[in-house]
Amino acid sequence: MTDLRVIVGDRELTASWTDDAPETRAALEAAVPVAGDGIRWGGELYFDLALDVPLENASDVVPEGAIAYWPDGDKLCLFWDETPMSQDGEPRAAAPVTVVARLEDVSALETLEGGAQVRVERIE
User: Fold this and answer.
1) Three-class DSSP category at 39
2) Is the whole model's pTM more than 0.85, yes or no?
3) Residue 2's pLDDT is what?
4) 121 forms bridges with which residues in the sheet?
5) How far is CA 7 from the centre of its chain?
6) What is the CATH number of the domain that holds 108?
7) How many structural domains comprise the chain?
8) What Rg value do the Cα atoms of the chain yield, rounded?
9) Segments forming the whole domain that contains residue 8
């Protein structure tokens, strides 16, 4: 089931919640819609978002398409490819993050150059 619409510049993607981080998911659900100026870091795009939640089931290696929250930096992150921290081609955050959702198709992000405005909203 598709739960979220993620708009990155002129690209529209969809995502589904994961079940591994109920506190973070609840906090993000209460906050959406959220938006910010995305900063590119390899195959990751992140923007400022302050949620009052701790790390849950945290990992620095994430699946392709992960939407993750980094509480120490107050950032929401989208991962679709290698980052400067990656080893063996996997998406890897600079520090442990909490994965809350997953993009269903990341191919639209493969041609993204630089940063972009990012908006995450609920699909009604």
Assistant:
1) strand
2) yes
3) 85
4) 5
5) 12
6) 2.40.100.20
7) 1
8) 13
9) 4-122
